[in-house]
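Sequence in, structure out. Go.
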Amino acid sequence: MSWTSQRQLVYLLIAVLLFIVLGVVGFLYFKPQATCFDGKQNQNEENIDCGGVCGACIGETKEIITLWSNVFPLGNGVYEVASLIRNPNFFAGLPELKYRFKLYDNNNILIAVKEGKTFMNPNEDYLIFETGITVGERIPKRVFIEFDELKWKRVERERIQVAVSEKSFNNSIFPTLEAKITNKTLLTLSDIEAAAILFDAEENSIGVSITKIGNLATESSRAVSFTWPNQFSVNPASSKILIRSNLTNEGDI
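Output:
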């Protein structure tokens, strides 16, 4: 091989090596970074997108159960809707639960859609509620609730212990349900939310209401009140009050 050919071969090898180096550098630079939402078992994960830096794996999860859904008239073509839902998972919660109410008339025609979002603690029954839904002259007969993709998170914090007592209902022009709630834990509870459900003698829901309570110091009590805009034609046979605080966040309760 001549000296000229040898020099050309060296240049070619240098060019190939440089190309390989640039290719590797480019691949590493533009390669997507591993995350806890990439659908791959990487980093130090124990399973796909869980374990290690991504937090504990939650295992197999069960779907949310809708116990019932109902629509309530407010007058002048305005309605409110509610669904009592259940999370049957003991250690899996939802920091964000996106939902969609769909209202249908007697001919099964969709007449209104209402979207919203909330959270869902593990092993919890709670009320999802929306009000001020205008449908004009149409009359909703049925309502269904749908959920977007559920992104479960392992939650091991204990459920809050709040006692409800001294319930009293007054079916006046503006009906009111009053009660006393007591914090039975050793911690101050924050961002407490309470939902009230009124039932008739057949245990059908005839009215719902939700209120924000705020903070409640340990072993302290507070009065809570729920109101409705119209008097009920029949006094409710019973009532139920559900209390919760967000256990899915990382801050203090």
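Check: The mean pLDDT is 88. Helices lie at 3-30.
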